[in-house]
Amino acid sequence: MLVIGATGYVGGRLTPRLLAEGHRVRCLVRRPPKLTARVWHERVEVHKGDVTDAESLEGAFDDIDVVYHLVHSMGGGDDFAEVDRKAAANVAEAAAAAGVRQIVYLGGLGDESDPSGAAAALSPHLESRHEVGRVLASGSVPVTELRAAVIIGSGSASFEMLRSLVEVLPAMITPSWVRRSRCQPIAIADVLDDLVGVAGLEDAMGQVLDIGGTDVVTYQEMMVTFAEVAELNRRIVVPVPLISPRLSTHWVNLVTPLPIGLARELVSSLVNDVVVRDDHDINRVLPRERLGFREAIADALARIEDREASTSWSDASLASRPAEPWNYDPSWAGATLYDDVRTRTTTASPERTFRTIEGVGGRRSWYVADPLWKLRGLIDKLVGGVGLSRGRRDPDELRVGDALDFWRVEELDEPTRLRLRAEMRLPGRAWLEWRLRGLPDGGAEVTQRAIYHPKGLAGRAYWWVLWPFHGVIFPRMLRRLVAEAEEKAAAAGSNGGRARSPVAAG
Question: How far apart are CA 159 and CA 333, in angstroms?
């Protein structure tokens, strides 16, 4: 298999899937170092080349059975259609010369004719997607063109635009086509299943096949459903006829983290209905169950907060869920997360420093700004939360699952990591963690990180209201913890030892 676009959203998830299926994979990339972040990069062949440069493709297609064409230059400038046209022509020619058996291309849904049979006006983005399919098919290699609408998965541009708009805005004034245009979104897991399933499938060769989930929805219904699945308050969507796609693009650019070029092409495509046509439905050649829109959203959001709150997602193995954020997704992909990161070094050993950190909270309090912590606990109690009254099970030691004031111990790996999950009432989710790294001189480097995943506009406002207090509390807390560890080490007469200082007795 040759994957063109292995550093992109779909290609980056397809490549490990092909490896897991037992295929030998070659990746055509312009910048090979971009692949080194992938845990699977040593298991693939890498060919440096650019699909717009025919000479650079020499040798890339040799001994290849199936080519996956997953690149496009949308958002890369006004000439993106010409760039993609040239790239498709080069791929078709190189594949034919090398004797490739099949090209699989992922394009975009959109009917090119209205019910009367007349030509329909597609957006420039969708028209370019269709044109690429025609250029590929003009060669001698059989092409399977899969056409999809909005792909649901963390990191997908369309999904990230949807997520940002719904999470940030409790009410929206939108173009009228948001209520009128129909879409058949598809889960990224189903996209990958279809891409793998059509490889070598005789009935799929030379075919244009539409792929989609089980639900046809309007964009307004998509926003309302996203809010429900994400447990946000119901979003108010007011469509009006006076908002143009150009104005919508600037609004999307303001509210979401997507680059404006990408946002412009996505917004321009929303005016078209993008639904599966019965006579092109992939189920005719590859029948199977697919996820509905609500299930796809839930799958994409299932572990979204772990994008930065833990390292498990970044170690994405071949069995990782494709809807999750991966460590090489674009910087604008994944949930909005705020953090406060502080780092200090100490002469105390990692073991001694960890035991000091392990003793925070309860009767010992949080080492700094006690009135502020008590005020936060009182406010939490007044709004129905747990407050600070739970204390801790043991004054010195913690276990995973322990309650710690209004926190819960989520991860504990002595002496390298302690992570607490907030259980106070707040418009979002929060964690407080410490990571320790041993130094050659026997000391330790301590990184303290407060992480916050806001829920809606109120969640974002909450973070920024408290931000000045974070600047007072968090650096002083880390400084005090490090000083306490060094005092305990000095009292014990060494950098190690299990001795507890008198103050640690509570």
Answer: 9
- Distance, in Å, from the CA atom of 407 to the CA atom of 381, rounded to the nearest integer, reads 14
What three-state secondary structure class fits 27?
A: strand
The length of the chain in residues reads 506
CA dist., res. 195 & res. 172, Å (int): 36
- Using DSSP's 3-state secondary structure scheme, residue 160 falls into helix
Q: Please give the Cα distance from 284 to 4 (Å, whole number).
A: 27
**Residues 6 or more apart in contact with residue 337 via CB below 8 angstroms:** 305, 307, 308, 309, 451, 452, 453
The DSSP bridge pattern shows strands 208-210 and 26-29 to be unpaired
Torsion of CA 282, 283, 286, 292, to 10 degrees: 90
What CA–CA distance (Å, rounded) separates 264 from 157? 12
pLDDT value for 58: 95
Rounded Cα distance between 432 and 426, Å, is 14
- Decide: 2 and 20 in contact? Cβ < 8 Å: no
List, in order, residues 6 or more apart from 483 with CB less than 8 Å away: none
What are the C-alpha distances in Å from 448 to residues 52, 355, 416, 435? 46, 15, 12, 7
Kindly list the distances between the CA atom of residue 202 and the CA atoms of 3, 18, 130, 207, 459, in Å, as whole numbers in the listed order: 20, 19, 22, 10, 52
Nearest to 290 by CA among 210, 223, 370: 210
Would you state the structure tokens that stand for residue 119, as one six-digit string? 């030509």
**Separation CA 163–CA 230 (nearest Å):** 9
pLDDT in tens, 327-374: 666 655 666 778 899 999 999 999 999 999 999 998 888 888 888 888
CA neighbours closer than 13 Å in the CB half-sphere of residue 280:
20
